[in-house]
Specification:
This protein is an alpha/beta fold. It starts with a helix and ends with a strand. Strands 5, 6, 7, 8, 9, 10, 11, 12 and 13 form a 9-stranded mixed β-sheet that branches. Strands 2-3-1-4 form a 4-stranded antiparallel β-sheet. α7 crosses α8, α12 crosses α13 and α17 runs parallel beside α18. Helices cover 47% and strands 12% of the residues. The longest helix is centred in the N-terminal third of the chain and has 24 residues.
């Protein structure tokens, strides 16, 4: 099986799965024993296709007599992958790509559509870049959104949060290719920087280490030993605020996910009591594995409790003095890094997220000890999931917004209106994040 076929197989299964393309590709590669070069090509095609799927379909549509949405899904996938690959792959012959797609169609009994796909892809190879340039320089906000990989359906949420000039700058930021950043255990920084094959550099914004490429965890020196973790720099920055404002007592991580931020807290704060809650059994198991990988029990004296369950119903072992609430959200700030998620989101799911966010923040304020802090975080750039949530909580509870204490400097950071702080996807290592620090007042 070649990389082109592998990419098309993964993309055909993405809509029926909640997994990311990288996860599906790993399983497929193991099962079919794919070569490294085929995995690399498939990975590039999957990312290119899913990042700007709407753009590729619109460009392909310009060369079709019928609307692309009326075509068989597998045929549509072939045109989408072909268009994206032809217009964005720089070191791969267009003719080879088209031939690979045609071979895939033959194997999947799509023979009657082969002449159409072959003709359209050859026309796109000749004239598609002219169409791509039109989207790039267009004054139409829909065209600019598609060029940046932002789904057109989401524009109302963006326009309610940002002014047009701000929005266009953010869209330009989101077209940057995502590359890897690394969190390094204290005391091991030089060990990582000295690995010549990584070409790593220390960030000016945080303790993150920057790479100029994406890297698999298994290829990361120090990963198995527990002193290196792949983590976006925005995630590292927001989790570092826990250490900055922590004043003792129990830290409660209400939605701990796969345990990445929990691992950072445990590695950075000595003798801390940390309790983590997670509703997903799969993510809970991943968190257990992550803590084992980091060898937390060997490196320090921290006390850790991991609980599986709904944060709206669980009770902490003691009253927490600091609560980290990394709330489930649209993930709009990470769409460039995890492009599959934006095509699965609907307004119904978006509204459901907002309802859950409100309940979780109110629950956090109920649980937190008087005088304690709640750090509310999302990887969203939408006001509806950020300032609106914190504003409602502050107005209804005995608490105060303390976000002015968060001191981030530089063009990558912007104050919310008026609550919280945004981290913008200013470079390839940063995702869009929002964080607000709230203090529960004494009774």
């Amino acid at each position: 099986m070649r990389g082109i076929e592998a990419a098309l197989k993964v993309i055909s299964n993405l809509n029926d799965s909640e997994k990311f393309g990288s996860e599906l590709l790993r399983k497929l590669a193991d099962r079919e024993k794919l070569k490294v070069q085929d995995i690399s090509l498939a990975s590039s095609l999957i990312y290119i296709t899913m990042r700007r799927k709407e753009l590729w379909q619109n460009i392909a549509n310009k060369f079709l007599k019928e609307d692309i949405t009326t075509l068989n899904k597998n045929v549509r996938d072939c045109l989408t992958v072909g268009t994206g690959g032809l217009l964005e792959l720089r070191r791969f012959a267009g003719g080879v790509l088209v031939s690979g797609i045609i071979d895939y169609m033959k194997k999947n009994k799509l023979n009657k559509n082969i002449p159409l796909v072959n003709a359209i892809l050859h026309r796109i190879n000749e004239h598609g870049r002219d169409e791509l340039e039109k989207f790039k320089i267009s004054s139409d906000i829909k065209d600019r959104a598609m060029f940046s990989g932002v789904p057109v359906w989401s524009l109302p949420a963006w326009e309610r949060t940002w002014q047009r000039n701000e929005l266009l700058k953010i869209f330009d930021m989101m077209i940057q290719p995502a590359v890897s950043s690394i969190r390094v255990m204290p005391g091991k920084l030089e060990d990582v920087l000295n690995v010549e094959s990584l070409h790593a550099k220390k960030s000016d914004l945080s303790d993150a280490v920057h790479l100029n490429e994406t890297i698999s965890p298994k290829n990361l020196p120090g990963f198995n030993e527990g002193f290196c973790t792949l983590q976006s720099e925005s995630s590292i920055l927001t989790a570092s605020l826990v250490k900055k404002f922590y004043r003792g007592g129990l830290i409660l991580d209400m939605c701990s996910g796969r345990g990445v931020k929990a691992g950072q807290i445990l590695q950075e704060i000595d003798d801390v009591n940390l309790e983590c809650w997670e509703i997903s059994e799969g993510r809970h198991k991943s968190a257990l594995k992550e803590i084992q990988r980091l060898k937390i029990s060997e490196h320090n004296k921290n006390n850790l409790i991991l609980k599986l369950g709904n944060a709206l119903n669980l009770n902490p072992s003691e009253q927490p003095k600091f609560i980290l609430l990394d709330a489930p959200c649209s993930g709009s700030g990470t769409w460039n890094r995890k492009p599959e998620s934006k095509w699965r989101l609907t307004w119904e799911k978006f509204d459901k997220n907002i309802n859950v966010q409100k309940k979780l923040l109110n629950r956090a304020l109920e649980l937190c000890a008087p005088g304690g802090y709640i750090l509310y975080i999302t990887c969203s750039l939408f006001k509806q999931e950020n300032e609106n949530i914190t504003a409602e909580a502050i107005s209804k509870n005995n608490c105060a917004d303390m976000s002015s204490l968060i001191k981030f400097n530089g063009e990558a950071f912007k104050r919310g209106r008026p609550w919280g702080v945004y981290i913008l996807p200013y470079n390839s290592w940063l995702d869009g994040f929002y964080c607000a620090l709230i203090m529960k007042k004494e009774a």
